[in-house]
Amino acid sequence: MNNKLMFVNCQKCGEDFVREECQHSIQERSLKGTWVIEEVLKAIEKGYQIIETYEIWEYDTIQLSKDQEGLFSGMMNKFLQIKQQASGWPKHCLTDEEKNRYIDAFLDREDIKLEFSKIIENPCLRSLAKLMLNSFWGKFAQKENQNKTSIVRDCGEFFDMLTNPSIHVNTVLPVNEETLLITWEFREEAYDVSSTVNVVLASYVTALARLKLYSFLEKVEERAVYVDTDSCIYISRKGLDDISTGDFIGDMTDELNGGFISEFVSGGPKNYAYKYTTLSGEEQIVCKVKGISLNYKASQVVNFEKIKDMVLKKSDPVSVLSRQLRRTREHAVVTVEFPKGYKITSMKRKFYEDHTSVPFGFKKIKY
């Protein structure tokens, strides 16, 4: 919706970014889209109603039993084993007995055998294994019609490309008197379907991950102050359940190792900062902003206090001098220095004056 991943309560409010109380009809509010069945079942559980169904895809194999080899089981289990071993021992595993108990529990829960001698903290190896696990799924949803580059030295070939109705020539770069570098792409109706793309598999991976995250949000409800793909920052209160942590796949981990956040501020998706106190009583500040490398110079402009000031006082955007390595059209690699604007973004939800937020189209129940 609006070229963004948005979760709304009203189709029309979301499309038009309506920040007032929703006045649309049920027909206007209804969401039209494509979902995997697990998402539909969850929506029905939460009170949604299906008004109309256009098409359903059903597969012969829906759920594998534990003794069956899945489509990617071998590959996934191998890199999950490497990632888990490179994460090191959990903090509660101090004795050999506790370590062996952890290995047995992981085998019982995940059907993956960890090797005692290989469980050593190795951030680089862990990062590599994580990359192999995550980037693999993105290929299934990769854009099929990618730009292509051709080196042309023949006038007839160049003319054929310009007159070919199935392709669109994007750029023509003269290399020398005899050579052209041409970038082009197929027109939408003409490109070949890739054998590596499967949007159903990609949809299931992302949908089930969202539902897993949602299961944590159901526990904390309005106490959640920020969520991302695999993380949740929430307010802990006496008498109310906290999100449990664990050592297994799908379990949350405590990123602060027993510390707690005293102040948190967010300027939008992947744009937040917080102060936290460690177990030893030391106060630390974490600031993360997507697209801006917060080196010493940049952190003098964009930091916890600045983000807090921009959110609470709605102060003006700021500019940060950024450096990037870029490739020119001539394929030379250069360092480019340019100003990059930083501002608060709040386009995906409706915000109130007290800084609480709800989905577009949210309506309070009137008793």
From TrEMBL:
One annotated GO biological process: DNA replication
One example GO MF annotation:
nucleotide binding
Task: Identify one Pfam family in the record.
Answer: DNA_pol_B_2
Q: Which UniProt keywords apply?
A: DNA replication, DNA-binding, DNA-directed DNA polymerase, Nucleotidyltransferase, Transferase
Q: Which residues form the DNA-directed DNA polymerase family B mitochondria/virus domain?
A: 113-219
What is this protein's record name? Answer: DNA-directed DNA polymerase
Q: Which family does it belong to?
A: Belongs to the DNA polymerase type-B family.
In terms of SUPFAM superfamilies, this protein maps to: DNA/RNA polymerases
Question: Catalytic activity, per the record?
Answer: DNA(n) + a 2'-deoxyribonucleoside 5'-triphosphate = DNA(n+1) + diphosphate
- The EC designation for this entry is 2.7.7.7
